[in-house]
UniProtKB/TrEMBL annotation:
Coiled coil: none annotated. Residues 1-110 are annotated as: Disordered. Residues 8-34, 47-63 have a biased composition (Basic and acidic residues). It comes from Plakobranchus ocellatus. It holds the Pfam family Mutator. This is Mutator-like transposase domain-containing protein.
Protein backbone atom coordinates (compact mmCIF):
# COMPACT_ATOMS: atom_id res chain seq x y z
CA UNK A 1 0.00 0.00 0.00
CA UNK A 2 2.81 2.40 0.84
CA UNK A 3 4.51 1.68 -2.47
CA UNK A 4 1.31 2.32 -4.40
CA UNK A 5 0.66 5.53 -2.49
CA UNK A 6 4.22 6.77 -3.07
CA UNK A 7 3.98 5.81 -6.75
CA UNK A 8 0.73 7.77 -7.10
CA UNK A 9 2.31 10.81 -5.44
CA UNK A 10 5.26 10.62 -7.82
CA UNK A 11 2.95 10.41 -10.85
CA UNK A 12 0.93 13.39 -9.60
CA UNK A 13 4.08 15.43 -9.07
CA UNK A 14 5.38 14.48 -12.53
CA UNK A 15 2.12 15.54 -14.19
CA UNK A 16 2.16 18.86 -12.32
CA UNK A 17 5.73 19.43 -13.43
CA UNK A 18 4.76 18.75 -17.05
CA UNK A 19 1.89 21.23 -16.80
CA UNK A 20 4.21 23.91 -15.38
CA UNK A 21 6.73 23.24 -18.13
CA UNK A 22 4.05 23.56 -20.81
CA UNK A 23 2.81 26.82 -19.30
CA UNK A 24 6.36 28.18 -19.14
CA UNK A 25 7.01 27.22 -22.78
CA UNK A 26 3.78 28.84 -23.86
CA UNK A 27 4.62 32.04 -22.00
CA UNK A 28 8.11 32.13 -23.52
CA UNK A 29 6.74 31.79 -27.05
CA UNK A 30 4.25 34.56 -26.34
CA UNK A 31 7.04 36.83 -25.14
CA UNK A 32 9.01 36.13 -28.32
CA UNK A 33 6.05 37.03 -30.51
CA UNK A 34 5.47 40.14 -28.41
CA UNK A 35 9.07 41.30 -28.77
CA UNK A 36 8.94 40.69 -32.52
CA UNK A 37 5.78 42.78 -32.87
CA UNK A 38 7.17 45.76 -30.95
CA UNK A 39 9.63 46.49 -33.77
CA UNK A 40 6.67 47.03 -36.18
CA UNK A 41 4.53 49.08 -33.83
CA UNK A 42 1.71 48.33 -31.41
CA UNK A 43 -0.54 45.42 -32.18
CA UNK A 44 -2.89 42.92 -30.51
CA UNK A 45 -1.72 39.32 -30.20
CA UNK A 46 -4.09 36.44 -29.68
CA UNK A 47 -2.80 33.86 -27.17
CA UNK A 48 -2.69 30.40 -28.77
CA UNK A 49 -1.73 27.48 -26.57
CA UNK A 50 0.85 25.02 -27.92
CA UNK A 51 -1.19 21.97 -26.95
CA UNK A 52 -4.83 21.10 -27.27
CA UNK A 53 -6.60 21.06 -23.90
CA UNK A 54 -8.33 17.97 -22.67
CA UNK A 55 -12.15 17.71 -22.91
CA UNK A 56 -12.40 18.42 -19.17
CA UNK A 57 -10.31 21.54 -19.58
CA UNK A 58 -12.39 22.72 -22.58
CA UNK A 59 -15.60 22.66 -20.53
CA UNK A 60 -14.17 24.75 -17.67
CA UNK A 61 -11.70 26.93 -19.58
CA UNK A 62 -12.26 30.67 -19.87
CA UNK A 63 -11.48 32.82 -22.92
CA UNK A 64 -7.79 33.77 -23.04
CA UNK A 65 -7.00 37.46 -22.47
CA UNK A 66 -5.63 39.62 -25.26
CA UNK A 67 -2.12 41.00 -24.90
CA UNK A 68 -2.14 44.68 -25.83
CA UNK A 69 1.18 46.47 -26.36
CA UNK A 70 0.83 50.22 -25.68
CA UNK A 71 2.70 52.90 -27.57
CA UNK A 72 3.87 54.65 -24.40
CA UNK A 73 6.13 53.10 -21.78
CA UNK A 74 3.74 53.48 -18.85
CA UNK A 75 3.30 51.25 -15.86
CA UNK A 76 0.32 48.86 -16.20
CA UNK A 77 -2.75 49.97 -14.33
CA UNK A 78 -4.82 47.33 -12.54
CA UNK A 79 -8.28 46.86 -13.97
CA UNK A 80 -11.27 47.60 -11.72
CA UNK A 81 -13.70 45.59 -13.79
CA UNK A 82 -13.83 41.81 -13.38
CA UNK A 83 -14.97 41.40 -16.96
CA UNK A 84 -11.99 43.19 -18.45
CA UNK A 85 -9.71 40.52 -19.97
CA UNK A 86 -7.10 42.76 -21.66
CA UNK A 87 -3.62 42.92 -20.18
CA UNK A 88 -1.47 46.00 -20.77
CA UNK A 89 2.18 44.90 -21.16
CA UNK A 90 4.77 47.72 -20.91
CA UNK A 91 7.70 47.63 -23.29
CA UNK A 92 11.10 47.22 -21.61
CA UNK A 93 14.21 47.79 -23.73
CA UNK A 94 16.78 44.97 -23.63
CA UNK A 95 19.43 45.37 -20.97
CA UNK A 96 23.00 45.42 -22.25
CA UNK A 97 25.59 43.12 -20.61
CA UNK A 98 27.83 46.08 -19.84
CA UNK A 99 25.37 47.44 -17.29
CA UNK A 100 25.48 44.22 -15.28
CA UNK A 101 29.24 44.15 -15.43
CA UNK A 102 29.46 47.72 -14.16
CA UNK A 103 27.04 47.06 -11.29
CA UNK A 104 28.77 43.82 -10.25
CA UNK A 105 30.53 43.93 -6.90
CA UNK A 106 34.32 43.61 -7.17
CA UNK A 107 35.84 40.32 -6.10
CA UNK A 108 38.07 39.82 -3.10
CA UNK A 109 41.18 39.76 -5.26
CA UNK A 110 40.18 42.97 -7.05
CA UNK A 111 39.70 44.72 -3.71
CA UNK A 112 43.16 43.65 -2.53
CA UNK A 113 44.82 44.69 -5.78
CA UNK A 114 43.08 48.08 -5.60
CA UNK A 115 44.93 48.85 -2.38
CA UNK A 116 48.30 48.72 -4.14
CA UNK A 117 49.43 51.29 -6.71
CA UNK A 118 49.16 50.25 -10.33
CA UNK A 119 52.41 48.75 -11.66
CA UNK A 120 54.24 50.38 -14.53
CA UNK A 121 53.28 48.34 -17.58
CA UNK A 122 55.69 50.10 -19.94
CA UNK A 123 58.65 47.94 -18.95
CA UNK A 124 56.67 44.74 -19.37
CA UNK A 125 55.13 45.82 -22.67
CA UNK A 126 58.52 46.62 -24.20
CA UNK A 127 59.89 43.12 -23.56
CA UNK A 128 59.86 41.11 -26.80
CA UNK A 129 61.38 37.63 -26.67
CA UNK A 130 61.18 34.61 -28.90
CA UNK A 131 63.23 31.61 -30.00
CA UNK A 132 64.86 32.41 -33.35
CA UNK A 133 66.70 30.20 -35.82
CA UNK A 134 69.89 32.13 -36.63
CA UNK A 135 70.02 30.72 -40.15
CA UNK A 136 66.85 32.64 -40.94
CA UNK A 137 68.46 35.83 -39.64
CA UNK A 138 71.51 35.17 -41.82
CA UNK A 139 69.30 34.87 -44.90
CA UNK A 140 67.59 38.14 -44.06
CA UNK A 141 70.90 39.92 -43.52
CA UNK A 142 72.30 38.52 -46.77
CA UNK A 143 69.68 40.44 -48.77
CA UNK A 144 70.58 43.83 -47.25
CA UNK A 145 72.88 46.46 -48.79
CA UNK A 146 75.89 48.05 -47.14
CA UNK A 147 75.39 51.78 -46.54
CA UNK A 148 79.14 52.44 -46.91
CA UNK A 149 80.03 50.93 -50.27
CA UNK A 150 76.43 50.44 -51.49
CA UNK A 151 77.37 47.00 -52.75
CA UNK A 152 74.74 44.41 -53.67
CA UNK A 153 76.85 41.49 -52.45
CA UNK A 154 74.91 41.48 -49.20
CA UNK A 155 75.93 41.34 -45.57
CA UNK A 156 77.28 38.53 -43.43
CA UNK A 157 76.51 37.75 -39.79
CA UNK A 158 78.96 36.27 -37.28
CA UNK A 159 78.53 35.10 -33.67
CA UNK A 160 82.00 35.26 -32.11
CA UNK A 161 81.04 35.40 -28.40
CA UNK A 162 78.37 33.68 -26.32
CA UNK A 163 77.43 34.03 -22.63
CA UNK A 164 74.65 31.55 -22.02
CA UNK A 165 71.65 32.65 -24.05
CA UNK A 166 73.24 36.02 -24.83
CA UNK A 167 74.99 35.87 -28.20
CA UNK A 168 76.92 38.68 -29.82
CA UNK A 169 75.78 39.37 -33.38
CA UNK A 170 78.27 41.07 -35.68
CA UNK A 171 77.08 42.34 -39.08
CA UNK A 172 79.90 42.68 -41.67
CA UNK A 173 79.81 43.81 -45.29
CA UNK A 174 80.91 41.09 -47.71
CA UNK A 175 82.42 43.64 -50.13
CA UNK A 176 84.28 46.24 -48.04
CA UNK A 177 84.58 44.25 -44.79
CA UNK A 178 83.21 47.13 -42.71
CA UNK A 179 81.57 46.18 -39.39
CA UNK A 180 78.13 47.73 -39.52
CA UNK A 181 76.72 46.56 -36.19
CA UNK A 182 77.86 44.60 -33.14
CA UNK A 183 75.36 43.92 -30.34
CA UNK A 184 74.34 41.18 -27.91
CA UNK A 185 70.94 39.58 -28.22
CA UNK A 186 70.15 40.57 -24.62
CA UNK A 187 70.74 43.65 -22.49
CA UNK A 188 72.66 43.58 -19.25
CA UNK A 189 71.02 44.06 -15.87
CA UNK A 190 72.44 47.41 -14.84
CA UNK A 191 70.70 47.25 -11.45
CA UNK A 192 72.62 44.17 -10.38
CA UNK A 193 75.45 44.49 -7.86
CA UNK A 194 77.46 41.75 -9.58
CA UNK A 195 80.55 42.48 -11.68
CA UNK A 196 80.38 42.07 -14.62
CA UNK A 197 76.71 42.86 -15.04
CA UNK A 198 74.72 39.70 -15.88
CA UNK A 199 72.53 39.42 -18.94
CA UNK A 200 68.79 39.74 -18.44
CA UNK A 201 67.95 36.70 -20.58
CA UNK A 202 70.12 34.40 -18.45
CA UNK A 203 68.49 35.61 -15.23
CA UNK A 204 65.01 35.28 -16.76
CA UNK A 205 65.73 31.75 -18.01
CA UNK A 206 67.10 30.68 -14.62
CA UNK A 207 64.16 32.17 -12.74
CA UNK A 208 61.64 30.60 -15.13
CA UNK A 209 63.22 27.16 -14.79
CA UNK A 210 63.18 27.42 -11.00
CA UNK A 211 59.51 28.43 -11.02
CA UNK A 212 58.77 25.49 -13.33
CA UNK A 213 60.49 23.08 -10.92
CA UNK A 214 63.59 22.42 -13.04
CA UNK A 215 67.08 22.36 -11.60
CA UNK A 216 70.33 23.12 -13.46
CA UNK A 217 70.69 19.65 -14.98
CA UNK A 218 67.04 19.31 -16.01
CA UNK A 219 67.25 22.74 -17.59
CA UNK A 220 70.44 21.76 -19.42
CA UNK A 221 68.69 18.66 -20.82
CA UNK A 222 65.82 20.83 -22.00
CA UNK A 223 68.23 23.15 -23.80
CA UNK A 224 70.01 20.19 -25.42
CA UNK A 225 66.73 18.79 -26.73
CA UNK A 226 65.82 22.22 -28.13
CA UNK A 227 69.36 22.68 -29.54
CA UNK A 228 69.76 25.89 -27.54
CA UNK A 229 73.07 27.13 -26.10
CA UNK A 230 71.80 26.95 -22.51
CA UNK A 231 73.49 27.90 -19.24
CA UNK A 232 76.25 25.97 -17.50
CA UNK A 233 75.15 24.35 -14.19
CA UNK A 234 77.71 26.36 -12.22
CA UNK A 235 76.48 29.58 -13.78
CA UNK A 236 72.91 28.46 -13.14
CA UNK A 237 73.58 27.92 -9.42
CA UNK A 238 75.41 31.24 -9.17
CA UNK A 239 72.50 33.11 -10.73
CA UNK A 240 69.98 31.18 -8.62
CA UNK A 241 71.80 32.09 -5.40
CA UNK A 242 71.77 35.75 -6.36
CA UNK A 243 68.08 35.61 -7.31
CA UNK A 244 67.20 33.97 -3.99
CA UNK A 245 68.81 36.80 -2.05
CA UNK A 246 67.08 39.40 -4.23
CA UNK A 247 63.72 37.68 -3.74
CA UNK A 248 64.17 37.75 0.02
CA UNK A 249 64.74 41.50 -0.08
CA UNK A 250 61.79 41.95 -2.43
CA UNK A 251 59.59 39.83 -0.17
CA UNK A 252 60.42 41.97 2.85
CA UNK A 253 59.57 45.10 0.87
CA UNK A 254 56.22 43.66 -0.22
CA UNK A 255 55.36 42.55 3.33
CA UNK A 256 56.28 46.00 4.67
CA UNK A 257 54.08 47.67 2.07
CA UNK A 258 51.20 45.29 2.85
CA UNK A 259 51.54 45.97 6.60
CA UNK A 260 51.37 49.71 5.93
CA UNK A 261 48.20 49.26 3.88
CA UNK A 262 46.68 47.11 6.63
CA UNK A 263 47.39 49.85 9.16
CA UNK A 264 45.76 52.47 6.94
CA UNK A 265 42.64 50.37 6.33
CA UNK A 266 42.18 49.63 10.02
CA UNK A 267 42.50 53.30 10.91
CA UNK A 268 40.15 54.35 8.12
CA UNK A 269 37.39 51.78 8.60
CA UNK A 270 37.41 51.68 12.40
CA UNK A 271 38.08 55.44 12.81
CA UNK A 272 40.99 54.87 15.16
CA UNK A 273 42.77 57.87 16.66
CA UNK A 274 46.30 56.48 16.73
CA UNK A 275 49.65 57.89 15.73
CA UNK A 276 51.55 56.73 12.71
CA UNK A 277 54.21 54.71 14.54
CA UNK A 278 52.11 53.55 17.49
CA UNK A 279 51.23 49.92 18.18
CA UNK A 280 48.08 48.58 16.58
CA UNK A 281 46.24 45.39 17.58
CA UNK A 282 44.71 43.44 14.69
CA UNK A 283 43.05 40.08 14.07
CA UNK A 284 44.90 37.71 11.76
CA UNK A 285 44.44 34.28 10.26
CA UNK A 286 47.37 31.92 10.63
CA UNK A 287 47.99 28.51 9.12
CA UNK A 288 50.88 26.37 7.99
CA UNK A 289 51.43 24.27 4.90
CA UNK A 290 53.95 21.68 3.79
CA UNK A 291 55.55 20.64 0.54
CA UNK A 292 54.29 17.04 0.78
CA UNK A 293 51.60 15.21 2.74
CA UNK A 294 52.01 12.71 5.52
CA UNK A 295 53.75 14.87 8.16
CA UNK A 296 57.12 13.87 6.70
CA UNK A 297 57.72 16.93 4.59
CA UNK A 298 61.17 18.48 4.65
CA UNK A 299 59.90 22.01 3.89
CA UNK A 300 57.14 23.93 5.67
CA UNK A 301 55.73 27.44 5.41
CA UNK A 302 53.52 29.60 7.61
CA UNK A 303 51.68 32.84 6.74
CA UNK A 304 49.90 35.56 8.69
CA UNK A 305 46.89 37.05 6.84
CA UNK A 306 44.98 40.12 7.95
CA UNK A 307 41.29 39.35 8.47
CA UNK A 308 40.04 42.78 7.41
CA UNK A 309 41.86 43.19 4.09
CA UNK A 310 42.94 39.62 3.31
CA UNK A 311 46.54 40.72 2.67
CA UNK A 312 49.49 38.53 3.65
CA UNK A 313 51.48 40.49 6.21
CA UNK A 314 54.34 38.12 6.91
CA UNK A 315 55.57 34.61 6.19
CA UNK A 316 58.43 32.29 7.03
CA UNK A 317 59.87 29.08 5.59
CA UNK A 318 61.56 26.25 7.50
CA UNK A 319 63.64 23.55 5.84
CA UNK A 320 65.11 20.25 6.90
CA UNK A 321 66.85 19.71 3.57
CA UNK A 322 69.99 21.11 1.97
CA UNK A 323 70.84 19.96 -1.53
CA UNK A 324 74.57 20.64 -1.16
CA UNK A 325 74.69 18.79 2.14
CA UNK A 326 72.66 15.87 0.79
CA UNK A 327 74.76 15.41 -2.36
CA UNK A 328 78.25 16.82 -1.88
CA UNK A 329 78.35 16.12 1.84
CA UNK A 330 77.22 12.53 1.36
CA UNK A 331 79.88 11.99 -1.31
CA UNK A 332 82.67 13.43 0.87
CA UNK A 333 81.53 11.40 3.88
CA UNK A 334 81.56 8.24 1.79
CA UNK A 335 84.84 8.79 -0.08
CA UNK A 336 86.97 10.74 2.45
CA UNK A 337 85.42 10.55 5.93
CA UNK A 338 88.37 12.37 7.53
CA UNK A 339 87.56 15.52 5.53
CA UNK A 340 83.83 15.50 6.29
CA UNK A 341 83.88 17.32 9.64
CA UNK A 342 86.02 20.16 8.32
CA UNK A 343 83.94 20.43 5.15
CA UNK A 344 80.70 20.47 7.13
CA UNK A 345 81.92 23.29 9.36
CA UNK A 346 83.00 25.30 6.31
CA UNK A 347 79.61 24.64 4.72
CA UNK A 348 77.81 26.03 7.77
CA UNK A 349 80.08 29.08 7.97
CA UNK A 350 79.59 29.90 4.28
CA UNK A 351 75.86 30.50 4.75
CA UNK A 352 74.93 28.23 1.84
CA UNK A 353 73.20 25.63 4.02
CA UNK A 354 69.42 25.86 3.73
CA UNK A 355 68.64 23.81 6.84
CA UNK A 356 67.18 26.16 9.47
CA UNK A 357 65.13 23.81 11.64
CA UNK A 358 65.76 20.74 13.76
CA UNK A 359 62.66 18.80 14.74
CA UNK A 360 59.63 17.04 13.36
CA UNK A 361 57.64 18.32 10.40
CA UNK A 362 54.53 18.75 12.52
CA UNK A 363 56.29 21.22 14.80
CA UNK A 364 57.25 23.52 11.92
CA UNK A 365 53.95 25.37 12.18
CA UNK A 366 54.52 26.02 15.88
CA UNK A 367 58.08 27.25 15.32
CA UNK A 368 57.00 29.55 12.49
CA UNK A 369 54.33 31.06 14.76
CA UNK A 370 57.01 31.85 17.31
CA UNK A 371 59.09 33.63 14.65
CA UNK A 372 56.22 35.64 13.15
CA UNK A 373 54.72 36.75 16.46
CA UNK A 374 58.16 37.53 17.82
CA UNK A 375 59.03 40.04 15.07
CA UNK A 376 55.64 41.68 14.44
CA UNK A 377 56.37 44.71 16.64
CA UNK A 378 59.94 45.17 15.47
CA UNK A 379 59.05 45.08 11.76
CA UNK A 380 55.54 46.47 11.47
CA UNK A 381 54.48 47.91 14.88
CA UNK A 382 51.58 45.44 14.86
CA UNK A 383 50.35 43.02 17.49
CA UNK A 384 48.44 39.94 16.43
CA UNK A 385 46.10 39.76 19.42
CA UNK A 386 43.39 37.63 17.76
CA UNK A 387 44.22 34.50 15.80
CA UNK A 388 41.72 32.75 13.52
CA UNK A 389 42.81 29.15 13.11
CA UNK A 390 41.54 25.89 11.66
CA UNK A 391 41.01 24.21 15.02
CA UNK A 392 44.62 23.19 15.64
CA UNK A 393 45.57 24.52 19.09
CA UNK A 394 49.28 23.67 19.16
CA UNK A 395 50.41 27.02 17.81
CA UNK A 396 47.94 28.92 20.00
CA UNK A 397 48.98 27.08 23.15
CA UNK A 398 52.63 27.74 22.37
CA UNK A 399 51.91 31.46 21.96
CA UNK A 400 50.13 31.51 25.32
CA UNK A 401 53.22 30.00 26.91
CA UNK A 402 55.62 32.27 25.07
CA UNK A 403 53.68 35.53 25.68
CA UNK A 404 55.41 37.47 22.88
CA UNK A 405 53.72 40.75 23.86
CA UNK A 406 54.10 40.35 27.60
CA UNK A 407 51.80 39.10 30.30
CA UNK A 408 49.51 42.14 30.04
CA UNK A 409 48.48 41.49 26.40
CA UNK A 410 46.25 38.42 26.03
CA UNK A 411 46.07 36.57 22.69
CA UNK A 412 42.61 35.17 21.93
CA UNK A 413 41.68 32.40 19.52
CA UNK A 414 38.69 32.12 17.18
CA UNK A 415 37.83 29.15 14.97
CA UNK A 416 37.14 29.58 11.27
CA UNK A 417 33.47 28.84 10.53
CA UNK A 418 34.42 27.12 7.28
CA UNK A 419 36.56 24.63 9.17
CA UNK A 420 33.78 24.18 11.76
CA UNK A 421 31.36 23.25 8.99
CA UNK A 422 34.00 21.00 7.46
CA UNK A 423 34.38 19.11 10.73
CA UNK A 424 30.58 18.69 10.93
CA UNK A 425 30.51 17.14 7.45
CA UNK A 426 33.42 14.85 8.29
CA UNK A 427 31.73 13.73 11.51
CA UNK A 428 28.46 12.92 9.71
CA UNK A 429 30.24 10.97 6.98
CA UNK A 430 32.18 9.00 9.58
CA UNK A 431 28.92 8.30 11.41
CA UNK A 432 27.31 6.90 8.25
CA UNK A 433 30.38 4.74 7.55
CA UNK A 434 30.54 3.38 11.12
CA UNK A 435 26.82 2.61 11.27
CA UNK A 436 26.90 0.83 7.91
CA UNK A 437 29.59 -1.50 9.28
CA UNK A 438 27.31 -2.40 12.19
CA UNK A 439 24.30 -2.97 9.95
CA UNK A 440 22.56 0.34 10.73
CA UNK A 441 21.59 2.15 7.54
CA UNK A 442 21.65 5.94 7.61
CA UNK A 443 22.69 6.59 4.02
CA UNK A 444 21.47 5.20 0.74
CA UNK A 445 18.51 6.26 -1.37
CA UNK A 446 15.08 7.27 -0.28
CA UNK A 447 13.32 9.97 1.70
CA UNK A 448 14.92 10.86 5.03
CA UNK A 449 18.25 9.15 4.27
CA UNK A 450 21.50 10.79 5.31
CA UNK A 451 22.96 10.93 1.82
CA UNK A 452 26.09 12.75 0.71
CA UNK A 453 23.97 15.57 -0.74
CA UNK A 454 22.07 15.91 2.55
CA UNK A 455 25.35 16.11 4.48
CA UNK A 456 26.60 18.78 2.11
CA UNK A 457 23.44 20.86 2.62
CA UNK A 458 23.61 20.48 6.40
CA UNK A 459 27.22 21.60 6.31
CA UNK A 460 26.28 24.71 4.31
CA UNK A 461 23.30 25.55 6.58
CA UNK A 462 25.43 25.06 9.68
CA UNK A 463 28.11 27.42 8.34
CA UNK A 464 25.59 30.06 7.28
CA UNK A 465 23.98 29.92 10.70
CA UNK A 466 27.22 31.06 12.28
CA UNK A 467 27.53 33.83 9.69
CA UNK A 468 24.03 35.13 10.51
CA UNK A 469 24.77 35.02 14.24
CA UNK A 470 27.97 36.99 13.68
CA UNK A 471 26.14 39.63 11.64
CA UNK A 472 23.45 39.99 14.30
CA UNK A 473 26.07 40.53 17.00
CA UNK A 474 27.65 43.31 14.99
Amino acid sequence: MLRKKRRAEQLTEARAMQERRRAWTSQRESDRELNASTSQGPSVLQHEPHHQPRPEQQRHSEPEPELTVPQTLEEPQPSTSRGDTSLVIPYHPPRTPSSSEEDAEPTRSEKKLALFPEPHADDVANIKRTIVDLTQIEEIVADLRCHHCLSDNGLAMETPIRFGFAIKLVIICRNCGETLSSKFTSARNLNSVSTPKPFVINEAATMSSLLAGMGPYSFRNFCEYMELPGVHPKTFNKIAKRLYSQNEVLGEEVFTQAAGLVRQEHIRQYHLAVEENSLLDIAVSYDGSWLTRGHKSLIGIGCVIDVLTGLIIDGHVLSLYCHIWARTGAWIKRETPQRYDRWFQEHLDSGDCTVNFAGSSGMMEVRIAEVLWGRSIQRYNLRYTTIVSDGDSKSFNRLLELQPYGSDVLITKEDCINHVGKRLGAALRNLVADCSKRGITFGGRGYGRLTAETIRKLQIYYTRGFEVMGQQRR
